Here is the input.
Amino acid sequence: EKMQLSYNIIKNNKVNSNFVYTVTTPLIEFKQSKEDTENKTEDCAETVDLEKINKQADEILHKAEVKSKQIIELANAKAQKIKESAYNTAFEKGHTEGLEKGWQDGFNKTLEIRKNAEYVLKDAHREAADNIKKQKNEILGLALTIAEKIIRYEVDTKDTAVINIVKSAIENTVAKGQIVIRVNPMDYAALDCERANLSKYAGENVAVNIVKDNDVGCGGCMINTKNGMVDARIDRQLDRIKHILLG
Here is the structure.
């Protein structure tokens, strides 16, 4: 499943660029009837409280937009005052020191002041961008919250969830001789019923052993082979997503 949260980023004086961040929940595939999907969506929405999370995201977006606009507007006003000051300086120089010399000195001073105005605007745009970046991380945090709750809902309510995860993990192993699948005791029965199926994924002449392990959370697994280990625990997968998105 994929979830998307989009937000607008302030650029120049307008909100004019749309970015979409996608969080993909790993290793889980579900095939369900339309009726089952509708029931699941309703139940899951109650569990996750999507309406509340969407409201939080909207509030974050609104605050980010308002603050960024204020930053740009204040910078424009400050830059305009600087430009007016530059003009007045040039005029006064010309009036008091004679047109030719006064205007030349005033012009040089104007260039300096205009550069200051440009710096003010650049700093404002940088500050607005930093503000958006901070809000981006907060919104991504909400997206991760949704992803985690939906994943946990699936693994708590569907035996097929852990089976699909184990199959995907097996496909990522290079095994000879045997593989040991470590799963939560709550998932053992569902996987034991699928032992023959799992053996097909492991390959010919590879023995599949399923072991109960309380250190593995529901829905996930750890697979040990002679060549190494595949960690497909739910918490670890979510940590990988967080690391990729938030650094």
User: Anything to note?
Assistant: Residues 159-233 form a domain with the hypothetical protein PF0899 fold fold (CATH 3.30.2320.30).
